[in-house]
Design brief:
single chain; mainly alpha; three-stranded antiparallel beta sheet; two-stranded antiparallel ribbon; 44% helix; elongated
């Protein structure tokens, strides 16, 4: 019987030589258990050059580590949104919003603990451009103002709100950013119960408050 196992991990080292030694140790450890490292997904690199991991890009800028959504993740998200809008050329605005919102909500909630604010705003603009093309194709003979008034509504804080009377399109830029709370490694789960209880309470507000 063959067993397929997928594990993702990051190993840090103080030099490239040490990293290669660790890689060999891990490879040997896995081989003894009938497993092996994936050559396509195994990378030794400098943190100043950065690397992608689970949809994020880890890289130091002038000595400061920043974690951002990776370019591949952004591309996949944009393609999914574009494909959905293309498929929905004959859908009602209400139905299109119902299809787009889960995609937007899921992606935003996954990336709301890293440096995403600028990327969220950029993607909001890309989505607007795709929706504008969608709307214009539906009304080739209508003037711009007519299309705007039909599909976009003004609010107290924003002019371009793609919405109906029942629903509105979510905005990535409205997602609240939650910074990750570092774990104090000296704390013991069984001895420092109060610390872990308080830490969990600080993390809980993330539930239900994102878009």
């Amino acid at each position: 019987m063959k067993l397929l196992c997928a594990t993702h991990l990051i190993v840090t080292a103080n030099s490239e030589e040490t990293a290669k030694e660790i890689k060999d140790i891990i490879a040997t450890f896995l081989k003894e258990r009938g497993l092996e490292l994936s050559d396509d997904k195994t990378l030794i690199t400098n943190i100043d050059a950065g690397f992608d991991f689970l949809g994020w890009n880890f890289r130091k800028y002038n000595g400061k580590l920043l974690i951002k959504p990776s370019k591949k993740s952004i591309k996949r998200f944009t393609e999914t949104i574009s494909q959905t809008i293309t498929e929905g050329k004959a859908w009602s605005q209400e139905f299109l919003i119902s299809k787009l919102n889960p995609i937007i909500r899921g992606w935003a909630n996954y990336h709301n603990s890293v440096v995403s604010s600028d990327i969220f705003q950029t993607l909001d603009h890309r989505i607007w451009e795709l929706l504008w093309k969608w709307a214009k194709r539906r009304h080739l003979n209508k003037p711009k103002d007519w299309i705007v008034n039909k599909y976009w509504k003004r609010s107290t804080t924003r002019r371009w709100n793609f919405r109906t009377e029942k629903n509105n399109l979510l905005l990535l830029s409205k997602t609240r950013i939650y910074r990750h709370i570092p774990l104090k490694l000296q704390m013991n789960l069984f001895l420092n119960v109060d610390y872990f209880y308080e830490r969990q309470n600080k993390l809980n507000p993330r539930k239900g408050q994102s878009i």
